[in-house]
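Recall the central idea of this unit: under ordinary conditions, the amino acid sequence of a chain determines the structure it adopts. In this exercise we apply that idea directly, starting from the sequence alone.
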Amino acid sequence: MRIEFRSTFRELCFAAACLTVVGLYLLLAGRAYWAAHLAASPDLHNIQRAIRLEPSNAEYRELLGRNLALSGASLDGAISDYRTSVQLNPYESRYWLDLASAYQVAGHLEDQEQAVERAVDADPTTPHVAAEAANFFLLQGDLEKALRHFRTVLANDPEAVNPTLQLCWRVTGDANQIFDQALPRRTDLYLSFLQLLVSKQESVAAENAWDHLIGLKETFPTKLAFPYFRLLIAKQEVTAAQTAWQQLAQVDEALQPYLSSRENLIVNGGFEENLLNGGFDWWYESNPHAALAIDTDQFYRGTRSLSVTFDGRSVPAASIAQFISVKPDTDYEFSAESRTQDIDSASGPRFSIADAYTKVSYVLTDDLLGTNPWHLQQARFHTGPNTNLLLLNIVRQPAAPLIRGKLWIDDVRLVEKQTKTGSAN
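Accordingly, the structure predicted from this sequence is:
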C-alpha cells in the first residue's frame, strides 16, 4: 500500500506560513497599540518608550519635542525631535509650525522663516496656518508677505474676516494696499471692509472701498450700503452720496424707481414703491404714537398713499423724512396732497423743508386739522448760497400738544423752477 505525503506536507507548510504572518501582524499591531497607549500620556518616559516601539512614527517625535519645549528641559533636544518629525512626515503643517516656534525661542530667525514657509507649502489654504505665517512676517516687518498670507485667511475663514481686516487696516492705513494685496475679489469681503471704514469714520478710504465694490458690478442687498450713505451725509459729502446712489442703481436695476428726476426731485413721492428706510428714499422710525402705514384704499394718485395715525399722545413729528440733493441759490417749488380725518389737536402736522446742515427753514406749511378731503399744499422757495441738501419731514410746531386722528399724504413733489429774466426797455 502507497501513502501520499506531498499534499499533507504542503498543507502544513501553508499553515505554518499563515501562522507566521498572523504572528507578525499581531506583533506589529500589538506594538502599535501599546505605543499609542503610552503616547497618550504626557509623561516623558512613556513617550520615549513609544518612540522605541515605533521609531518611524512622526507624531511621537513631535510629542517628545513639544514635551521638551514646554517643560523647558531641553530646547536643543526639542528642535532635534521636531526636525526628526518633519523628516519623517514633511506634509503635516503642525510639525513645521512647532519647529518654527522652537526656532523663535532659540533666536534662529532664518530657520524660523524657512519652517513657516514649509508649513504653508504643506497646507496652503488652511486659515490658521496662513495666520501664523502672516503674523510671523508682520513681526519681521515684511508687510507684503504678511498681507499675502492674510489674503488666504480672508478667503477661507468667515469668522476671522472682521478681526483680520481690522489688523490689516491698523498696520497699513492704506485701502489701496489692502485691496491690492490682501482682499480677494469678493463682494462680501469688500462690503465687510467698507463697513469697517464706515465704523471708523474714514470717509476718504470708504469712498475708495465703495469704488472697488461698485467695480465688481455684482448686486448685493441695498440696506448694506446705507451706513455708507449715512457717513457721506454726515460728512457733508452730498455729491459723493448722490453719485454713489446712481452707481448703486446701475448695478441693481431694482433701484431704478428710486432715482430722482427733473420732473420730481422727491424719491418715491407717491409711495408706490416699498420704503427702503435709507439712502435717498424715505427714512423712518417706528413710533406707536404716530403709526406709519402704506394705505392701498386711500390715495390721490396711483394705488397707494402713506398714512399716519396719531393715538392721542404727544409726538413732535411723524418720524419719516427724506434727504434731497439740490443746487445752491436756486428756485424750487414744493407740492403735496394731504387728507385728514378727525385730527384733534392744538397743533396739527405740517410739511417742513429745511437745510439739512444749517437747519435754515425754507418751507413750513399750515397745520392740518379736522377732517378734510384731498387738498394740495404748495410752497415756493429759493435756496441759500451754500445749501446743497434739504431735509423734508412732517413736524408739529409747537410739538408738545396732544394729538389724535389720521393723516394721509400722497404725490409729494419738488421741482426746480427756472428764474425768468426780463430785458429793460
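Residues 18-123 form a domain with the Serine Threonine Protein Phosphatase 5, Tetratricopeptide repeat fold (CATH 1.25.40.10).
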